[in-house]
Design goal:
Blueprint: H1 2-6, H2 22-28, H3 42-54, H4 56-74, H5 78-95, H6 98-109, H7 111-120, H8 125-140, H9 147-158
Length: 159
């Protein structure tokens, strides 16, 4: 852009085979990276192919995310999930992405409780939701002076 401006010409960005410029490709690919490749449309598949050709690091990161997603979607026993998580952790270390190292270390430290998800496919989301309701209720009254009455009100409202 600088060179064309110095020559008093209009800047014409390079277009890819799908008609996107580099800026458009990056902006339009944002939500596509959250999806599984099985759920993408034909246009999204084409866009992802172009994106991954231009940015191989994004492809590597996408593959790591899909690998972790597949572990939780397909594992039927704790032993297979544990083995797959160990392989995934090794892949993360080999890539050298620091952002993934944080996730991998968290999984390594808490793998027992994380693998409990495989047993009955449930999370602690309901407990977290209830905890948020309690905090909101407590904040509404700017703290708790009488603990017994507070617990009584909680049981009346949420039990």
């Amino acid at each position: 852009m600088k060179r064309t401006k110095e020559k008093n010409r209009a800047f014409v960005p390079k277009e890819f085979s799908n008609g996107d410029t580099r800026k458009q490709l990056l902006a339009r690919s944002r939500y596509l990276l959250y999806k599984s490749p099985n759920n993408s449309t034909r246009n999204q598949s084409e866009r992802s192919r172009i994106l991954f050709d231009q940015y191989p690091d994004i492809k590597t990161a996408f593959d790591l995310v899909q690998g972790l997603r597949n572990i939780f979607n397909t594992a039927t026993s704790i032993q297979t999930a544990y083995t797959k998580l160990a392989h995934w952790h090794k892949d993360v270390e080999n890539t050298g992405f620091r952002a993934f190292n944080t996730n991998a270390n968290t999984i390594a430290l808490n793998y027992r409780s994380i693998l409990n998800y495989i047993i009955n496919r449930s999370t602690n989301a309901s407990a977290e939701s209830f905890n948020a309701k309690i905090k909101a209720f407590r904040a509404q009254f700017r703290g708790v002076r009488n603990t017994e009455f507070f617990l009584f009100r909680l049981t009346q409202l949420f039990a």
